[in-house]
């Protein structure tokens, strides 16, 4: 565990041989174990080279961490970052898969005679409209950059591009997972290297 000490906390630890700290929130001295009777019995203390940190060397009566583990430092930063990455990746994938599934449902609904009006159905039935929309939405995504406008609509323009392109994927019977797989395969190679390797095989 880690705690703060002031001069009094250190003096108390030296005389009592029980790990004592200074509670910054309560502005009081605090001896670990004073309420639970689970003390840390101090054998020695070390200060570092510039004397701004101290190690208490002691034996706790029971595991020090309130979780019951031997140490409070049981969470690896690497694991934490991985967990966060996995959560973010799952959310992104769930969004794309869910949109893909809605688009597929709309395609199935085309077979039925009646059904709610649907933009997806209109796109699925009219490839000229679909391609025109993809080009128009891509243009709308680029325009604020070219015309130095603010980026308040960029996320929404990108969503339009993705949605319309995903309807095209459905028409071509290509899964979003196939697209993601291609992107993953490209992780290990720069675009410049890839282009150069194409030029050398083409010549
Ligand atoms: N993500 C979208 C989505 N993004 C954009 N759009 C529609 O795409 C159309 C774009 O056409 P427009 O160019 O006229 O719209 P605009 O770009 O705002 O207008 P302009 O000023 O550029 O002309 C609008 O009707 C939007 O509502 C979308 N329509 C549907 N979806 C998804 O598909 C699901 C099913 O939708 P329906 O098939 O309509 O039931 C929805 O619940 C959404 O999850």
Automatic annotation (TrEMBL):
Protein name: Phosphoribosyl-AMP cyclohydrolase domain-containing protein
SUPFAM superfamilies the UniProt entry points to: all-alpha NTP pyrophosphatases, HisI-like
InterPro entries linked: HisE, PRib-ATP_PPHydrolase-like, PRib_AMP_CycHydrolase_dom, PRib_AMP_CycHydrolase_sf
Pfam families, sorted: PRA-CH, PRA-PH
Catalytic activity entry: 1-(5-phospho-beta-D-ribosyl)-ATP + H2O = 1-(5-phospho-beta-D-ribosyl)-5'-AMP + diphosphate + H(+); 1-(5-phospho-beta-D-ribosyl)-5'-AMP + H2O = 1-(5-phospho-beta-D-ribosyl)-5-[(5-phospho-beta-D-ribosylamino)methylideneamino]imidazole-4-carboxamide
Keyword Nucleotide-binding belongs to the record: yes
GO biological process: L-histidine biosynthetic process
Domain Phosphoribosyl-AMP cyclohydrolase: 1-74
Organism: Gossypium darwinii
CDD domains, A to Z: NTP-PPase_HisIE_like (cd11534)
GO MF term set: ATP binding; phosphoribosyl-AMP cyclohydrolase activity; phosphoribosyl-ATP diphosphatase activity
Alphabetical UniProt keywords: Amino-acid biosynthesis, ATP-binding, Histidine biosynthesis, Hydrolase, Multifunctional enzyme, Nucleotide-binding
Superkingdom of source: Eukaryota
TM region positions: none
Pathway recorded for this protein: Amino-acid biosynthesis; L-histidine biosynthesis; L-histidine from 5-phospho-alpha-D-ribose 1-diphosphate: step 2/9; Amino-acid biosynthesis; L-histidine biosynthesis; L-histidine from 5-phospho-alpha-D-ribose 1-diphosphate: step 3/9
